[in-house]
Amino acid sequence: MFSVPQAAALTRLTETEVRQLIDAGRAIAIAEAGDDDAPPDYRLPYWQFFDPLWTHLPMVKAALRSASSWGLLRFLEQSAEGLWGYTPRAAIEQGHVEQVLTFAEWSNC
């Protein structure tokens, strides 16, 4: 998991742009407890910024009907019998996007 500055360096975006992706719901970001006065610190899975995941994450999120980063992260990282025992993330990486989307529609995250 990367911090916002690490994610910015990886993606060649500014920290502000990474935070805008988080605020728009485009990036999976888990908030860390911090000071009330400071902007929240986040942890972001590094793998989400690479294709094919970056391309397909919005579709998976829509199929899950979940706005929760925790729910999306849990869904992507938990092995599933409906996906031959793979995690949805691994299934996407192996080109099984349609199967993951169908599984996401029936999932209860």
Describe what you observe in this structure.
- The protein is mainly α and 109 residues long.
- The chain folds into 2 domains: 1-48; 50-109, no CATH class.
- It is 50% helix and 6% strand.
- The chain has helices spanning 4-11, 15-23, 53-64, 69-77, 88-93, 97-106, and strands at residues 30-32, 41-43.
Q: Report how far apart the termini are.
A: 21 Å
Annotation field: number of helices: 6
**SSE sequence, one letter per element:** HHEEHHHH
Helix content: 40-55%
Main sheet: strand order = 1-2
Number of domains: 2
Radius of gyration: 14 Å
Mean pLDDT: 92
Largest sheet: 2 strands, antiparallel
Give me the count of strands: 2
Question: What structural class results from the helix and strand content?
Answer: mainly alpha
Percent range for β-strand residues: 5-15%
| General shape | elongated
Q: Which regions are unreliable across 5 or more consecutive residues at pLDDT < 50?
A: none
